[in-house]
Amino acid sequence: xNRIQHLFLMCVLCLGVGTPVFGQDFALxxxxxxxxxxxxxxxxTVYITxxxxxxxxxxxxxxxxxxxxxxxxxxxxxxxxxxxxxxxELKGNESLKIGMEVTxxxxxxxxxxxxxxxxxxxxxxxxxxxxxxxxLAKMPAALGEFDVLRSITMMAGVNNAGDISNGVxxxxxxLDQNLMLLESAPVFxxxxxxxxxxxxxxxxxxxxxxxxxxxPAKYGGRIASVVDVKxxxxxxxxxxxxxxxxxxSSRLSLTTPIIKDKLMLLAGGRxxxxxxxxxxxxxxxxxxxxNFSDHTIKLLYLPSAEDQITYTNFYSKDFxxxxxxxxxxxxxxxANQYDFSTMNHTLxxxxxxxxxxxxTTKLVSSDYQPKNLFPEVDxxxxxxxxxxxxxxxxQIEYLNNQTGEVDYYLGAQFNRYHIExxxxxxxxxxxxxxxxxxxxxxxxxxxxxxxxxxxxxxxxLSTGFRLSQFNLVGPYxxxxxxxDQNYEGSIQYQSGExxxxxTYPEPRLGLNWMVGERASFKASYARMYQYIQNIYNTNxxxxxxxxxxxxxxxxxxQNDTYGFGFYKDFDRQGxxxxxxxxxxxxxxxxxxxxxADFFLSRSIETEVVQxxxxxxGFEFGLHKNSGRFNGFVNYTWxxxxxxxxxxxxxxxxxxxAWYASDFDRPHTLNATLNFEGDLYNKISFxxxxxxxxxxxxxxxxxxxxxxxxxxxxxxxxARLPTYHRLDFSWTIAYSKDPKRRFKGDWVFxxxxxxxxxxxxxxxxxxxxxxxxGSVFLSSPLGxxxxxxxxxxxxxxxxxxxFK
Amino acid sequence: xxxxxxWALSRAILAxxxxxxxxxxxxxxxxxxxxxxxxxxxxxxxxxTAAGTSYAKxxxxxYEFGLYRSKHISGxxxxxxxxxxxxxxxxxxxEGSYIVDPSFRVQSGSKWYxxxxxxxxxxxxxxxxxxxxxxxxxxxxENFNPEMLYDEGTESYTSGHEIRINFDDPESHRNFFxxxxxxxxxxxxxxxxxxxxxxxxxxxxxxxxxxxxxxYYTYLCDVPCWKISYNQDINIFSDEFTNGKSVENLLVAKxxxxxxxxILVEVLQLNISQDAYKHYRTIKDLVDNxxxxxxxxxxxxxxxxxxxxxxxxxxxxxxxxxxxxTETIFIRRSLRDEPLSGDFKSPQPEILxxxxxxxxxxxxxxxxxxxxxxxLDAKRLRYFKGTAILEGSTNLTNTP
Lengths: 803, 400
What we know:
The structure holds 2 protein chains of 2 kinds.
Chain A: H1 2-17, E1 26-34, E2 45-48, E3 53-56, E4 62-67, E5 70-77, E6 84-90, E7 94-100, H2 108-116, H3 119-122, E8 128-132, H4 133-138, H5 148-152, E9 158-159, E10 169-170, E11 178-182, E12 185-186, E13 191-192, E14 197-198, E15 205-211, E16 225-231, E17 240-245, E18 249-259, E19 263-273, E20 289-304, E21 307-321, E22 337-352, E23 358-375, E24 382-400, E25 406-425, E26 435-436, E27 440-454, E28 459-473, E29 476-481, E30 487-493, E31 498-514, E32 519-530, E33 532-535, E34 546-549, E35 557-570, E36 575-592, E37 608-624, E38 629-643, E39 659-660, E40 667-675, E41 681-690, E42 694-695, E43 700-704, E44 707-711, E45 718-719, E46 723-733, E47 742-751, E48 759-766, H6 773-776, E49 781-787, E50 793-802
Parallel strand pairs in A: 1-7, 11-16
Antiparallel strand pairs in A: 1-4, 2-3, 2-5, 5-6, 8-15, 9-10, 11-12, 13-14, 15-16, 17-18, 17-50, 18-19, 19-20, 20-21, 21-22, 22-23, 23-24, 24-25, 25-26, 25-27, 27-28, 28-31, 29-30, 31-32, 32-35, 33-34, 35-36, 36-37, 37-38, 38-39, 38-40, 40-41, 41-46, 42-45, 43-44, 46-47, 47-50, 48-49
Chain B: H1 2-20, E1 26-29, E2 41-48, E3 55-64, E4 67-72, E5 77-82, E6 88-94, E7 97-99, E8 111-117, E9 123-126, E10 129-130, E11 137-151, E12 156-168, E13 176-186, E14 191-194, E15 196-199, E16 202-205, E17 216-221, E18 226-230, E19 235-238, E20 246-256, E21 263-272, H2 274-287, E22 302-307, E23 314-331, E24 363-364, E25 372-373, H3 378-381
Parallel strand pairs in B: 2-23, 17-24
Antiparallel strand pairs in B: 2-3, 3-4, 3-7, 5-6, 5-8, 6-7, 8-9, 8-10, 9-22, 11-12, 12-20, 13-18, 13-19, 13-21, 14-17, 15-16, 18-25, 21-23, 22-23
């Protein structure tokens, strides 16, 4: 198998490097990007007057043409942007950067409409959202700054565990079934403050792409979706900075050339200190400590007209101690503290050939290190629990989208997962024994290819294929069990020795049948596999929740997604309509056994059950992208169900009957309305409404001494009240003069305008005499509703920009 | 002009922000919901190496007259069986439980299971449990914590005494512990009647008495009477990370500061099996760890009983064989100056002139139950020597 992969890789390399080079003329390379967001602009028309020739920029915003020595007039045209004309004297290889300005009279969304107009109709890709930073910024945020994860929950089929959620659920999948990428590097813990904020530094984000259906073959490893967060390219010839000051966090980013036209830098960071805030809140949070920071640095190096090298570094750090987070058992300590960090590096080399095809090579590393700290009672010693995920990846991909008839890419990828599931370090004390769970090493090899073929003017086919192989390799200690699941002993595998291997084909298919010029039907199918999972038995995982790669007992998760949809653009009104239906069939979904405890467990396979799953739904979207009033309405009807097939009655969930998964939300209605009345004021409203999350209520009670114990027989047998809220955002721009270099905006947001208390959870409590007797009446147990946000949240932040 | 106006507005918003832009969690009482199933059988049984601690409880869920509860099943045949010797020890019914002879205790290393036959003939049998070795408590101490517990209902902290112990964990084998406590304090009064008075053995409502000026009346105990209280949370510990170590300052009990009466706390350390520990840990998750953002999701409480007539049916409850060690600590709460937690009502006897039915009444009986006794043995009583024990009122009559 490895030989085949290597052969393929060689072919890809030969294909790329071996592309012929013509004559002695010179290469003219132009990078075209949005002057404000720095997002590369794909599909910009470039016309060269002298040769009456030209072309369009590729997905990286690059156009390359070989020309003889001479002077040329280049015209750049893109709907929604001001047309630019440039004279170039070509005496040698030349590399240019063109920042295109949004036309002033057309407000922002026109641009996106123009760029994407009909893309939703013409592309065979289904279930995809592409949100730019501009779109993200318009959505009212909880604390005055846009947030990637909160914003994407406005899209159809995207949910979360509630106001506090360490990730998102897409089409009923669990949080770990989404591949969360930041500049191609996976982010294993995407939130700060236990799910209140995304870790992505807001100022540096250029956009986010979300794939939910026929996920492109270049992506693999997770079965529900891909959330690909992209960072601005620092194309600039002047020093610029921007930032914001908010109540919870403050941000600053700068973009500057280091070597003119060769080396440019983008650096952005954010710091949040909440220690002072929490003691002002409810007494329950008085011992809370919560600090976080993140930064993103991106270097862009342009060594030649054909080459673009970027290096991106992302770092995120959190430290907190929360009273609403329960303690870890069996370690005697005065507190439980959480300390976790992510350090990602991405090195990307994009080489563009003269025929405008390109070869991309990526080296990626991601290092996630969660820790628990336990200060000992009456001592200065701190006991430390540490775990880590080290991810290394190499990827090479050749892209040719210049033919018009068949656009294709081919690639190969190698990922290594090195997980240290847990170590307990007693420090200088002598109160506990050190524990080391060893390591898990997994290699994932993939080759892939994808082609979009125009079969006829009305019919486009997108085919993709990914072949993945996953190997769990030694050193590794594997437990063995008898037929009754009793532990029999273990086998020790040596370094490099293969413990278990899985090889799976992953076909992807998309079909687009145009009905007239502005409507189409689409169908899609995708199969995907997942070899790494996050194991937890809570509503939302803790940053320290254990990650586990597949082994002999925890099998890879499999997903087959089928989709069908209808799309129509109403050009005159600027409306886009989409209606998609999907069915997901999954196997080996991970869920926990009753009484499972995952903390430093040596036999975690005995604590989990793998269940079959099925999710299906219908998603309707109506988007209006232009005009003073613009926005969207998304409605989703969906179900997400699980079923175990366990022989042992004690291991069965709901006695092996289908039951609602934690992310089963039958009805979801999301809407955004933007009013962009003038250059100084932008007003937005968001509405979110969805069926309450399933949760579990007791089937009985009994008393043991003085403790009343609830009896649970069936999981997820009730629902929390319907979740709904309305948000408001008002951006006040001050600068009348568009040429003024320093601009400041105030962003005023009201999150949850009408103060809806959306419960995060409802739980039982022991009766305490007559306390709350008028609510609990004669019930043997009390019951409390835990709400993450108490009523309305008003915030004001100041954002500034210097160009 | 317009710019000025907008600036003024922004300042106003900023001020508003300072008042309201707070991120906070909130907990609110809601009517409890159940998906109640009648007639679920739950068996909770324990045998231990300490005399007087073994018991079995057989309960059945019921929903009657709008009340959710579990009621005691009377008339069961409950038998403890030694797997090796086939010795059978019959349990007898007493005050809602099945108990053995007070002198009965099991030996460490002996193997036991229990059979419960309901009056309808349905029979449950537990798996076999081996009584572990006893592990001695080497030290016990208490400290007063003004913020011992957070009370969701009152949104405030409850103060109390935290009991911590030390013990040397044996290295030769894994140990799992379950802690309970039983505390004795002298009752200040034996009856409290809200909007009523104590007559003929019950509180007689005076809610329609327009002349009534006091919200409640209290009645002294007719004999020295001792209140018995128990743990209201689940305390467990595994030597998973401490095998063979000296375990110090392990928090095993939380005694709320609800009265200034001195209190005798008996901590029972039960050394149990790994399976039993897992069972109690699940209970702890259901009872104590269920309130936070990362609360473990509720799980079925799988025990170790089998319904012999329907083995595929999940049987609820657990039989546990334990090695029990008791350690006692006496806390002089009367010396503390801190305010009491909870809703303690000061004594308020009937006095001449009160608009209540005659004759005036001052005392109520100390009715024996698991929560109250007048028969405190000499060993326990010894701890209270030197403290002011309220004299019984047996020489008083209810008629002045």
